[in-house]
Amino acid sequence: MLKAENVTKTYNAGKKLALSDFSIDVPKGSIYGLLGPNGAGKTTFIRIINQITQADSGKIFINGENLNPEHIRQIGYMPEERGLYKNMSVGDQILYFGELKGMSKSDALAQAKYWFEQLQIDQWWKKKLSELSKGMAQKIQFVVTVLHRPKLLILDEPFSGFDPVNANLIKDQILKLKNEGTTIILSTHRMESVEEMCDYVALIDNAKKVLDGKVFDVREKFKKNIFGITLAEIDDEKFSLFRNEFGITDFRTENQLVTFDLKNDRNQNILLNELMKIGKIRSFDEKIPSMNEVFINAVDKS
C-alpha cells in the first residue's frame, strides 16, 4: 500500500537531520507500527506522507503510484496534537471535514450516523467541542479521521486521553477497519498495543531505521535463549548438581513445584532429557522478549 525508498529530510538549511535514507514497505490490509523515541523522525515521515512537508530526496509510492495530491483523499490522519475547532458544534465539524475530503453532505451524514452508533456518542451532535472531555473529543477526532473511509489510515498515539474501556473500544474499531481492508500505520509508545495489534513494525532512532519486519520475527531476533522451567517431584540431589552445572542461583519453590529461568545454548531436546531425570516437567517455555524490551535494547545499541 505504501512504499518509501531512501527518504531523507533535513531542517535548518541542512543542519538538522530528521530522516536519513529511510525505507519501509507497508503491505495492504496490515497494521504497521512506526516506533521510535521522541524526536526520532516518526512525525517527519508522517508529515511527508500527508504532503504537509516534502522530502529532500527519496521516493514514496501509494499503491504503486508516486505520491501526489490526489492521494490526500485516500489518507486519513489523526495527529497526536488534535486539530478540531473548540467553539464549533460536533455535527458541523463532522460535515465540514467530510466535505474537505470530497464527501457529499448525505454521504458524510450517513457515515457520521454509523460512527456515532459504533462509538456510542449519538447525543453529542449539537455539543460544542469545548463542552466535551478530552476523551470525548478524542472520539470526535477519530470519527473525523475515518469518516471518508480512507484506504490508508495513519494514527499518531490514538489511545492518548482514553480510559481503558474507551481505549479498548477504539482498538476494536481499528481492528475492524483492518479486517475490512484498511491499511493502518500506528505510531505509539504503548508497546503492549504494538504486540496486540501490529503485524509489522519499523523502529526509527536518530533519523535512521534501526530495524523492521514482522512483529514476531523482530521479537525472535532479540531472544537470548532463556527458558522458564517448572518441575515437580524433583530429586534434590540431581537438582543440586544441575544447579551447579548451569549456575542457577535464583529459583522459587511453591506447592512442591520448583520454578527457575535458565539461559541455555544447548539443543533443547538434550536439555529436556536432562530435566526429566531431575523431576516431572510441568512447563518449559522459551522467553521471547516483549516489544518494550526490544525497543529499549534496539535504541541502546543504535
Structure description:
This protein is 36% helix and 28% strand. With 302 residues, it is of the alpha/beta class. It folds into two domains: 2-220, P-loop containing nucleotide triphosphate hydrolases (Rossmann fold); 225-286, ACT domain (Alpha-Beta Plaits), CATH 3.30.70. It has a six-stranded mixed sheet, sandwiched between helices. Helix 2 crosses helix 3 (105-118). The radius of gyration is 25 Å and the shape is elongated. It starts with a strand and ends with a helix. 30% of the residues are buried. The model has no long low-confidence stretch (mean pLDDT 91).
Key features of this structure:
302 residues; alpha/beta; four-stranded antiparallel β-sheet; 14 strands; 28% strand; six-stranded mixed β-sheet; Rossmann fold; Alpha-Beta Plaits
Topology:
Blueprint: E1 2-11, E2 16-26, E3 31-35, H1 42-49, E4 57-62, E5 65-66, E6 75-78, H2 90-100, H3 105-118, H4 134-146, E7 152-156, H5 164-179, E8 183-187, H6 191-197, E9 200-205, E10 208-214, H7 215-221, E11 226-232, H8 236-246, E12 251-254, E13 257-263, H9 268-278, E14 280-286, H10 291-301
Parallel strand pairs: 3-8, 3-9, 6-7, 7-8
Antiparallel strand pairs: 1-2, 1-4, 4-5, 9-10, 11-13, 11-14, 12-13
From the N-terminal CA to the C-terminal CA, the straight-line distance is 28 Å
What can be said about the biggest beta sheet? Answer: 6 strands, mixed
Radius of gyration: 25 Å
CATH topology of the largest domain: Rossmann fold
How many beta-strand elements? 14
What do we call the CATH homologous superfamily of the largest domain?
Answer: P-loop containing nucleotide triphosphate hydrolases
- Helix-strand topology string: EEEHEEEHHHEHEHEEHEHEEHEH
Counting structural domains, the number is 2
Helix content: 25-40%
Please tell me what the overall shape is: elongated
Determine the structural class based on helices, strands and strand pairing. alpha/beta
Report mean pLDDT, rounded to a whole number: 91
Q: Give the strand line-up of the largest sheet.
A: 6-7-8-3-9-10
Residue windows where pLDDT falls under 50 for at least 5 positions: none
Distinct helical segment count: 10
Strand content range: 25-35%
CATH class of the largest domain: Alpha Beta
CATH architecture of the largest domain: 3-Layer(aba) Sandwich
